[in-house]
Every structure is written in structure tokens, then in C-alpha cells.
Amino acid sequence: MKLRTAIFVVALIGAPSIAFAQTTQQGARDGAAAGGAVGGPVGAAVGGAVGGAVGLGLEIPNAVIGAITGANRPSVVYDRQIVVGEPLPSQVEIYEVPGHAEYRYAHINNKRYVVESRSRRVVRVID
User: Fold this and answer.
1) What does the pLDDT read at residue 10?
2) Tens of pLDDT, residues 60-119
């Protein structure tokens, strides 16, 4: 009986961890890529950890992603690096996400970026 209870407790604790891992994978990948570009291997390690933590705290609804990927806005060329966690410059046009006032998006260099409406901070890259 104790073994069965222990297995149940481990499964109960582990299940949310698996769900969190799926939502933080993109954040960790994006953070590692950005950190590696700026600070080499150490930057990649730090960026991955920070990106994973940000992804853990922010899960963007699938409806937002669907609205953005289904939108037909032209991609603009921008010659600077876009970094998750950093705000977009004011000269970059951002578009509304219908039904989700807290998010906007930009279509830059053939990638779509999910942006917080108030701060213009990039929260996710959609390839």
C-alpha cells in the first residue's frame, strides 16, 4: 500500500512538471539563442535559464497564436536583432490581436513576434 501511495504522489507531482516543461521549452530555446548570440556559451546558459523562467510565468493562449499565424500582414525588413524580453522600437508597426487586447504582434523578417500591448515587449517568436 505504501508503494502504491508513493507512486501516486510521484505521478501527481511529476504531471504538472511535464506540462510546465512543454510551455517553457520555447522560452528556453529563444533565451538560449539570444543569449548565445550576445554572450557566447555563458550567455546561452543564462539566456536559456531566464527564457525558461519567463516561459513558465507566461503562457500565451492558443487563440492568440492562431489569430497571429492566420493573419495576412506583410513582413517588413528590420536590420537589428529582435530579442525576446526586450521592447520593440516605436518605429516598428504592431498589430492588434482580435479579442486579446493584452497582446499585439509584429511581422518582421518573415517571423511573427507576440508583443505585450502596453510595454511593446516581445514575449514569443512564432516561426
Assistant:
1) 39
2) 999 999 999 888 899 999 999 999 999 999 999 999 999 999 999 999 999 999 999 999
Lookup: cell for 39 = 554572450
Please state the φ and ψ torsions of residue 121, each to the nearest 5 degrees: -75, 130
Cell 511593446 found at: 120
* Residue 123: other Cβ atoms inside 10 A: 20
Residue found by looking up cell 538560449 in the block:
32
Say if residues 37 and 31 touch (Cβ distance below 8 Å). no
**What is d(CA 26, CA 97) in angstroms, rounded to the nearest whole number?**
21
Please tell me the distance from the alpha carbon of residue 100 to that of residue 47, in angstroms, as a whole number: 28
